[in-house]
Amino acid sequence: MPFYVHAQDKPDVADQLAELCEEHWSYMDRFADGLIFRGPTLSDDGEEHTGSVHVVDLADRAAAERFATEEPFWKAGLYQAYTADPVVVLLHREPAADALYTLVTARWSPRTRTPGEAEPWLSAVAADERPAFVAALVDDDRDRTTGLVAAVRARPDEARSLVRPLADRLGGGPVPLTTQSWQRGGRT
User: What is the phi/psi pair of residue 83, to 5°?
Assistant: First the structure.
């Protein structure tokens, strides 16, 4: 089952993150077959690392929490918090290397999931190459949506506008969207 694992950096840890990069990548190599999507979140100017996003196929929530807490940056005390949520991947294209994306996220109260409710939006953006990844956050039973995460190669306002119809549809009405810069991660 895929899980969205998002960790937030503590302030002013850039040097320590750099020192542990090889350890982090070696740890991620252990999950290479299950890594669906990954990369750092960045400051608005794209210069500073602010956290890490991973969508990884794992057995259950306990495995997702182990994935987060056994990660070298977490073990070194460089992250201040993490979330681990099951997801249903709606769209997955390989993000461009060295390109800045906007990570759009939303959270809402659990809402019954209706299979196929994302199809109209997916059909509408099929030819649009800007969305690289879109997933619905779901509860552990996978029968209710609880949020959305999307990576869009666009400025924040444009990314929000593109994702809003899907987020509002899945969330059952207007939902607040947050944005931050994101970049594809990994050794290459």
Answer: -125, 150
